Amino acid sequence: MKRKMTVAVIAALCLGLFCSFPALDRVQAQGKKADEPKITVLNPLGIAPAIKLKPMAPRPASLDGKTLYLIDNGYLGTDNLLKEMVLWFEKNLPKTNVVFKRQQGGGFSSEDPKLWAEIKEKADGVVIGMGH
User: Fold this and answer.
1) Residue 94 belongs to some domain of the structure
2) How far apart are CA 48 and CA 80, in angstroms?
3) Strand 67-72 relative to strand 125-129: parallel, antiparallel, unpaired?
4) How far is Cα 100 from Cα 83, in angstroms, rounded to an integer?
5) 3, containing H or E segment
6) Which H/E stretch holds residue 125?
7) 111 part of a folded domain
8) Is residue 115 part of a domain?
9) Looking at the 3D structure of the chain, how many domains does it have?
10) Which of 39, 66, 107, 122 is least crowded, fewest Cβ atoms below 10 Å from its Cβ?
């Protein structure tokens, strides 16, 4: 019992000492602040412009009788996923015409003007497989 009391008193004294050091630093710092010049700091990041929200494209009520293009951009494994989607559409929405195409050149940044012209002319909807 006596030992526990001694430990408690020592702990209280240590806490008192440690807690008083920051208070002493603050008192000393306040005295120095009056002598030091004021520094102005600017944020180099600036302020980001406001984000303009765009509404989602209108969705058709049904895909029956519509033509849907599934485009593979050549990313590894994307063709497997899109081919499974073709099978799903054939099984579950047989009245939907699904066209699977591979983008020439492949990759996210390459252009395929012939494919985009065909899509604009014939497609009612497009799903582009972009990889993960």
Assistant:
1) yes
2) 40
3) parallel
4) 7
5) helix 2-33
6) strand 125-129
7) yes
8) yes
9) 1
10) 39
